[in-house]
Give the backbone structure.
Amino acid sequence: MTQAVEQLGIKSYVAKQLTYWLYNAGAQSYDVMTNISKDNRRLLAENYKIGVNPPLSVKISIDGTKKYLFKTERGNYIETAFIPDNNNDRNTLCVSSEAGCKMGCAFCYTAKQGFQEKLSVHDIINQLNAIPERNIITNIVFMGMGEPFDNYDNVLKSIEILTSEYGFKIGKRKITVSTVGIVPGIKRFLNECDCNLAISLHSPFEEERSRLIPMNEVYHISDIMSALREHDWGKQRFPSFEYIMFKGINDSDRHVKGLCKVLNGMRCLINLIQYHSVPGDEFQTTDMEVVKAFRDKLSNKGFSTTIRASRGLDIEAACGLLSTLKMRDSEYSKKSSD
Ligand code: SF4
């Protein structure tokens, strides 16, 4: 920002005024920036477009979860979920880092779309900036479409804007970045960023995990664990593991034992997530009793284990489903008009 204003011959302190207006005040036009001279505002407006890219649509669940659909400047669809938790005064925003995804996870709707683009910093920040809840968001999770470490630089730049004094002032521990386990990204992130890290694990066994997450063929569970164990975590931070439970695939006692072995001695949090199948799906939902028993067995072995509440089940909550439907719609209307 400082460089941008200086290049226009404007004094560098104006950069600070600009960040206040853009991020703190959510200004949509230069006209409201009354502490910046008219000449400078004109110069800025001639060179830099500001404002938000509003969502195309929103779906609202009976539980208060909202799913926003955005169209990026390059014409791709991305999803953002607003997840309120009134019991804990927490409002979480689940943001996308890419349109589509390259990782090809077997259970994921986004994967079925293939990859379209890495989101720009603007596209990432816009997911917060352009929604009516922008001022009440307490937590941000990079768990939407895309693999954040495949778009590392833009994700990190976005995090700087989200956490810094000049930006949205969201606490670093209130932001979680979730990865399938891109080891170079994990190492860089742990050294360069103080936000939380979540690993999508889904199985403690290499071969079985590779079937769910093909990237496991490149970065094995053993590589991920070595990277995590080598890092000096200090007392403040520890990794969490996402574990989506698929009936008959990764929800047995053998998997509990495997997890205990893989995570042995590691201070971490395990989040169990009940998979919700849709008709025709090859994966089925593990019964809640089985999920609870799985949690209890892990807890008894000393692992902090929680079950993530399923939210927004009535609004195509599965990541990638809404944008896939939208893509099909657009392709259909394109074909019809052809
Ligand atoms: S689960 Fe995440 S990383 Fe895997 S394909 Fe879907 S969006 Fe990509």
User: Anything to note?
Assistant: The chain is about 35% helix and 20% strand. Residues 2-47 form one domain.
